[in-house]
Amino acid sequence: MEDLAEKIFNLLGDRPGYELVQIRFVNEREENLTYRNGMPRGLNKSQSQGVGIRVRANYSWGFAATNDLSKDAIIKTAELAWKVANSSAKVARKTQLELVPEPVYEDKYSVRIDKDPFEIDLKDKLDLLKDANNTMKENSKHVKMSVINYRANEQKVNFYSSEGSKIEQRLLFTGGSILGVASYAGDTQTRNLSNFRRRGWEFIEEYDFIAKAEQVGKEIDILVTEAESCPSGKSTLILEPFQLGLTIHESCSHPSELDRVFGYEADFAGTSWLTPEKLNNLQYGNEQVNITQDPSMPDVLGHFKYDDEGVKARPVPIIREGIFVGYESDREYASLLGLERSSGNSKSDSYSNVPIIRINNMYLEADPEGYTNVDDMISDTKDGIYGLNWKSHSIDDKRLNFQFATQIGYKIENGEITKPLKNVTYQQITPEFWGNVSGLTRTSEIYGLPYCGKGSPVMQIGYVSHGGPWGRFEGVNVGING
Amino acid sequence: MIKMEDIKQHAYIIMNEAKKQGAEHIQVRYTEHYRVGTRYGEKHITQNISTTSKSFELRTQIGGKVGTYNGSYSPDLIEKSVADALLLTRVSEDDTEFPGFVQEKYNYRPKTAKYHELEPDILADEIKIVIDKATSMDSRITAVAGNLHYQSTKSCLINSFGLEVDEESSGITGVINVCATDSGESRSTTRIAGATIKALNIEERTESVTNTAIQGLNQGELEPGKYETILSPEAVAELMRFIAFGASSEGLITHQSFLKDKLGEQIFDERITLIDDVENPEQNSSRRYDSEGVASNNVSFIENGVLKDYAYNRRNAKKLGVESNGRHLFGFMGESAMFVTQHLKAGNKSREELVSSIDDGILVSNLFYNNFVNPPEGLCTGLTRDGLFRIKNGEIIGSLKNMRWTDNITSILSVAEPGSDIRQVADLFGMTFMTPSVRVGQFNYSSKGKH
Predict the structure, then answer these.
(1) pLDDT at res. B156
(2) Interface predicted TM-score of the whole assembly (ipTM), two decimals
(3) Which is nearest to A362 in space by CA: A273, A446, A288?
């Protein structure tokens, strides 16, 4: 691979307008195993390999990819990337923009894998899924559908840059989901627990599918037999780390992507209300709100050591004591804003897609002086709703008006949970929501979501992680119905 | 350019290897794919790509056990890929809902589409036309963004029962987003699709969205509530995607469909007729057979507002005791069945006539980030985007800030009149919709937006 990369650098290096070549060889494999209602329902394995070549010439980008790994095909692909870059230059940016610099790295890295999931006997995996299916059935009178999914994905990426970087990364994740659907007396409700981490099979052992299936089975019965509909009006709202993480994802992570801010996502994902003049000047939330991006954090799904431009991962503050202080960038957009360095957000989901600015690992920091745990927080809440786990999400194209639904909720009265709730929805305007934080816990958790869609004309799937402490918010609109 | 005979040969190499390694029954789907995609923003090209790929799906059956393997095609890896696929099948348990591979002999329609490759320069030239056209129309046009995506595919599907069918296709989709700035910002978007670049009517669509962007400047506010509304084709397409989920047999089995147990019932206004128009080569998602090899023909699944059929694949059809109508899909979400080539029958009134028929209402250009709130109920939410206008006494009197909508699909379409301005709208998930604007009796705006 390295020889071929050198050959491509030499081939294009002397041409007029040549600036840079980045080459990614990606070898990917996946197991995606599902049991539904006690039977196999989608036992899938996949494997792909290919090379994506990105050329910058005349201040314009070109990208070409192939999964034909013969030497001739790769050279032809490099020529095509060159041709595409020159085609881009026909409708180029009026001002010439240099990329922000990044040191050159030679490195070989793997995420922590104690037990290689691809080496574990397939039968053990299928037995686990089947047992979890049975457990849910044993714990629910009204279950109509139980779906247990296991997934392991591995990407081996060899990155070569004409600037000199040679980086090999083995990025692997495992995880799964436990979904139950119950129907009773004309009502249908769902409950779904899931998590994914950049760990090996040991994470699956820790995650305990059987205990989760028992929980889902019991809770879907509660939802269809006991839960009342969420009341409408303004309410105090407590969110657990998964749902809080999703709220961060939509209302903080996406609007702080610099490509959106500059209008380059206007055709698909939208733009952003976090326009450049707001950097270091905007009260995004109250002083309890500290949000950080950190792909260097080990084990979480958004973890990697280098992004797809060879930028080394590091923590980047996004919100500090409520003030908006940082964007997610790549080397080009960092330059456009006048930043000194990329925040390391350039990622592609496969060899065949071009790297774009993607969310990685972003979380709300816990409050070391805050509530001991969620029980402590609930006992200090006079009247409110506790919402758990994602059911529905929606937010506008500048990321200001969001509305979410949670799978299950609980009514809190005088410091105690008094009854379960279903169809819990909440809607708010982003800075009003984050400006009304009334408490955080000291404890926190981070969850992986392997399904963030962004990019056009080909939508790419991002592996992201979010979370933080349990959070309490005041004056939230809840119970929104048609 | 690869020949179809070579594609079939690759598929048979995989099938023969699977036979050799002990598979009892085999299905192979082999695809070669070419694409050129160009994205632009702030009046210049930001991304420009050209990719080729060779891939296959191998499904093997041993007794009642079934496994699926997807991979890149590489002659060196076939033996290992097939071994991996068969290992998965062997350790599985009997899948009693698996319907088996196709043994029927279908009369497939003749091929109409062709595989073509396109030079990246051609898309760049089209983008220059869009940018030049929009910026020349008004000095308040400050940004133009969008994309064009051309794809061509050659594929074949074979199985060990003698099925051999092949397909070629090519098509283009795109987005044009124009931003006008005065004291504030206004954007307008169109999502275009066609079999050829010419079919996109790029200049005409650019002119239309540019006019809408200018018209959208200086937005006022309106209190949330229920308003009579005209939904433009892009907005109607968003609702049609919800209907696709509702009419999927998958939702009948998973209890997630708001159309479950409603066959034969009047679910929408009698002026709503929806056809899954797979026979129309002008629609990008048209096809002759589904990914199981079942022949796909047009299905009129909502006739005069009455639900007439669901989308079935072989697995769901077997479980529900009916025949597949050739709507199998295999993708990111696993196996499913869906109507992805919908055509909403046009009415007689032009868009202007629809506007003039409203005394007090709203015109919606686009809907954004729409999602089910509660799928079995059909309750959905989302936002308006890129052009919201106030209608009073039959005229557009100004633009509005965006609003969130939360409403039930069947309620929205209970009083619905399609217009005559039918065109193809591209979807983000590979679907295409042929739809006109639709006037609906009421649409529930549940909260105010900020822009």
Answers:
(1) 97
(2) 0.93
(3) A446
Other beta carbons within 10 angstroms of residue B418's beta carbon come to: 24
Residue A78 in contact with residue A55, Cβ under 8 Å? yes
**Residues of B numbered 127-146 whose beta carbons fall under 8 angstroms of chain A's beta carbons: which are they?**
127-128, 131, 143, 145-146
Q: Is the pLDDT of residue A164 over 60?
A: yes
- Let me know whether A218 and A242 are in one domain: no
Query: Cβ B382–A394 below 8 Å, yes or no?
Result: yes
Q: Inter-chain contact B44–A85, Cβ cutoff 8 Å?
A: no
Token representation of residue A147: 């779906």
Checking if the pLDDT of B333 tops 70, the result is no
Q: Does A407 touch chain B (CB under 8 A)?
A: no
The architecture (CATH level 2) of B4-213 comes to 2-Layer Sandwich (3.30)
Cβ-defined contact of A122 to B88 (cutoff 8 Å): yes
The total number of structural domains in chain A stands at: 2
Region A390-414: mean pLDDT is: 97
- Residue range B243-252, pLDDT digits in tens: 999 999 999 9
Distance CA A328, CA A115 (A): 33
Residue A118: closest C-alpha in chain B: B84
pLDDT in tens, B180-238: 999 899 999 999 999 999 999 999 999 999 999 999 999 999 999 999 999 999 999 99
Q: What is the predicted pLDDT for the residue at A205?
A: 97
CA torsion sign, A331 to A335 to A339 to A340?
A: positive
CATH of the domain at A34: 3.30.2290.10
Sequence-distant (≥ 6) Cβ neighbours of residue A241 within 8 angstroms: A444, A445, A446, A447, A467, A468, A469, A470
B124/A87 CB distance under 8 A: yes
Q: Which residues in chain A have Cβ-Cβ distances shorter than 8 Å to B189?
A: 266-267
* pLDDT recorded at residue B1: 67
H or E segment to which residue B210 belongs:
helix B202-215
Q: How far is A127 from chain B (nearest CA, A)?
A: 10
Supply the range of the domain harboring residue A369.
229-478
Is the separation of the CB atoms in A21 and A9 below 8 Å? yes
